[in-house]
Design a protein that fits this description.
This protein has 665 residues and is mainly beta. It has one domain. It has eleven helices and 33 strands. The strands form seven sheets. Strands 16-17-19-20-21-26-25-24-23 form a nine-stranded antiparallel beta sheet, with helices on one face. The chain has a six-stranded mixed beta sheet with strand order 11-10-15-14-13-12, with no helix packed on it. Strand 23 and strand 24 form a beta hairpin. The chain is globular and about 60 Å long. The protein starts with 10 loop residues before the first helix and ends in an 8-residue tail after the last strand. Bound molecules: MU-OXO-diiron and calcium ion (CA) (3 copies). The site of MU-OXO-diiron has 8 residues, from loops.
Length: 665
């Protein structure tokens, strides 16, 4: 039996596996439990790990800190805020956290003012989209690293009909009762990306209105090219595109990355949810679609738009699940789906230029028991001729990670004809390897992880930090070193060191940096540095960013339906070096029902840009004072406007230090 669960019944249950039930934290832990959890003793005593694996799991530096708890100076100099949940956002004292742009604000010149009671798809395509997730920055002019003026690249992941549209009614397994084709077109227009020019004037950030750089890219209408080994394959062809080389739009863009040459990589994550229908029993795509959960049926778009109905257009779902490369400096450029980087539920695409000059892109596949990947370009980054780099991501090697129990790691090449990736196993070409990347990873024996979200790579140490957000379906028998907890409701973070600190290496080592959750709750099995305060621990790491000083910042997404930690999502600094390694410190908190996304430092570390996604939705009913499911008419919060009749609005927030200076100093 497949341990995965590709089919979900409705969107509310399905997004990012949000239907899992967290642990009951009301059970009072004994003093022994507290000590055991705080110091990870339960894990040491469990007996399922070898001594080597224990050392690999917890790492020599954390073991050392458990012995002595000797303190050095925190690298995160700010006054920590408290866990909690309320209607608005909070930042550490001495900082400003100002709204930069909200859902519906004008992006493109000529955009009409936002009117949520009379919204149209045409207006939405000129306005800032919904559910801002990834945020990236390219200074202007390119190459200047200008920290005060540049382009902001923002993903719009998905839509929440219940708080976007008046009177959509109640949701059942076929969607909201009163959805119409016109509303669906607004949703399609609200998906995709925004590119906006921003500048700091007299210490205050603003969007440059009507800038020629300002651009909306949408699922509804933006033409895109398909490149790389899967382009033109028979499995990529549709009625719209007989050549299999062009497609309209991008969907469910979660995290992403900005390359060294200033291109914007945007990730197609839960693409499966947008398709519905049913393939015939003998259809050749059945194994592929089963493995990806197509059709997810989270939206009823397939009822009105044939390309989202797999009965009518059975190959359209093969044209989603890719990394899309966009040139933010050319508003007329055509975005390109780079198939060489594989097809899966792409969470992020952070990259680094290796010492060899090759570009290395680190990527997670966000599903329970799915894999971590990296792509190494064949060519090298051209620092003299920026345009020459567009195409670099079409040739190279995709690798999938195997985490060995002895603390080592192997990157397994996903190359047609090598190992099991042959015609006998259903892989007739590199296109087959890429369209069915997950199936190829299964065949290679990659390590099933606890929902790999964002991966950050440090420009200073070359180390990689993998956010494993949670996986409550992992059983005790499925526990391994890199996924050390059964029923993992709180997630963990794995640190990867490439052999020789060479990001192109095919081997490396790994350590678990922290096991998330409340260290004072005995049944949780959390492992933090004991210096972590009662507010310094977190649950469900999702995104991360490493600032120019090499400090790791983590944002969380605890998902819907329950209060896992008792606090709203937010951002925490997390020490990675020295005796404080594994110590968290809380910096920012979102309003009720939101998740924290997009953490992005500008080049001087004096501006920290974050994205507040879906305020008033996920899990609000679990919090005291908010016991209801939000609707447009009665949302749990009307953040950030707090005006009657105005719904909550996903927004990008700019954090600066009052009086100026480096964040966290
Ligand atoms: Fe859209 Fe995996 O977060
Ligand atoms: Ca995410
Ligand atoms: Ca990131
Ligand atoms: Ca998320």
């Amino acid at each position: 039996m497949d341990q995965r669960d590709p089919q979900f019944s409705c969107k509310a249950e399905a997004f990012e596996a949000a239907e899992d039930v967290g642990r009951n934290q009301s059970q009072a832990p004994t003093f022994g439990d507290v000590v055991a959890a705080r110091f990870g003793r339960r894990n040491f005593l469990r007996g399922s790990l070898t001594a080597t694996a224990v050392a690999a799991t917890f790492g020599p530096s954390l073991l050392r800190s458990m012995d002595a708890a000797a303190q050095t100076t925190s690298r995160y100099v700010f006054e920590e805020i408290s866990h909690g949940v309320d209607e608005t956002h909070h930042v550490a004292p001495g900082y400003n956290a100002d709204i930069l742009i909200r859902w519906g604000d004008p992006v493109v010149a000529g955009s009409p003012a936002f009117d949520p009671h009379a919204q149209t798809a045409a207006a939405q395509e000129m306005q800032f989209g919904y559910n801002n997730d990834f945020v990236g920055y390219v200074g202007l002019p390119f190459g200047s690293n200008n920290p005060d003026h540049g382009l902001l690249c923002v993903n719009h992941e998905y839509t929440n009909e219940e708080v976007m549209f008046p009177g959509v009614g109640v949701q059942d397994e076929t969607g909201f009762a009163n959805m119409t084709p016109d509303l669906i077109e607004i949703e399609m227009a609200a998906h995709g990306n925004s590119i906006i020019e921003i500048e700091k004037v007299d210490g205050t950030w603003r969007v440059v209105a009507d800038s020629p750089y300002n651009r909306r890219i949408s699922l509804r209408s933006t033409p895109m090219e398909i490149s790389g080994p899967a382009a033109g394959d028979a499995r990529m062809k549709t009625a719209y595109d007989a050549a299999g080389t062009r497609v309209i739009g991008t969907v469910n863009n979660c995290a992403g990355g900005i390359t060294a040459y200033g291109s914007y990589l945007t990730c197609e994550e839960n693409f499966n949810g947008y398709f519905w229908g049913e393939l015939t029993e003998d259809h050749p795509e059945n194994a592929n679609y089963d493995r990806y959960g197509v059709p997810g049926g989270w939206y009823n778009w397939g009822e009105h738009f044939s390309r989202f109905n797999i009965n009518q257009e059975p190959n359209e779902a093969n044209r989603f699940g890719w990394i899309v490369e966009i040139d933010p400096l050319d508003p007329h450029s055509v975005p390109v789906k780079r198939t060489a980087l594989g097809r899966f539920k792409h969470e992020g695409a952070e990259s680094i230029v290796a010492d060899s000059g090759q570009l290395v892109v680190y990527m997670g596949d966000d599903e329970r028991f799915d894999y971590i990947y990296k792509f190494v370009s064949a060519g090298t980054v051209n620092t003299e001729d920026r345009a020459a780099n567009f195409g670099l991501l079409d040739e190279g090697t995709l690798y999938v990670a195997r985490f060995n129990e002895d603390g080592t790691l192997d990157w397994l090449p996903m190359v047609h004809g090598e190992g099991p990736l042959t015609a006998e196993n259903g892989f007739n070409s590199q296109a087959d390897v890429l369209i069915g990347t997950r199936l190829a990873g299964d065949a290679l024996g990659a390590t099933p992880m606890d929902r790999p979200e964002d991966l950050g790579v440090s420009a200073t140490t070359k180390k990689i930090y993998a956010m494993l957000t949670n996986n409550t379906r992992r059983t005790a028998e499925q526990v391994d070193g890199a996924n050390p907890r059964a029923d993992n409701a709180f997630g963990h973070i794995v640190e990867i060191t490439e052999t020789g600190d060479d990001n192109t290496a095919t081997t490396g080592t790994w350590e678990v940096l922290v096991q998330c959750g409340d260290p004072a709750a005995g049944d949780v099995g959390a492992v933090w540095n004991p210096a972590t305060s009662e507010n310094g621990w977190f649950a469900a790491p999702d995104n991360c960013v490493i600032d120019s000083q090499g400090r790791l910042w983590v944002s969380t997404d605890q998902g819907g339906g329950w209060a896992r930690s008792g606090t709203a999502d937010g951002i925490w600094g997390l020490e990675t070096e020295g005796d404080l390694r594994g110590t968290g410190k809380m910096f920012f908190r979102v309003p009720v029902g939101a998740e924290m996304c997009g953490p992005c430092f500008l080049p001087d570390d004096q501006t920290f840009i974050v994205a507040v996604q879906h305020p008033a939705t996920d899990g609000t009913a679990a919090y005291p004072g908010f016991e209801r499911t939000s609707t447009f008419e009665d949302p749990a919060t009307r953040w950030p406007d707090f005006q009657d009749g105005m719904p909550p609005r996903p927004s990008v927030v700019v954090i600066t230090k009052q009086g100026g200076g480096v964040i966290g100093s």
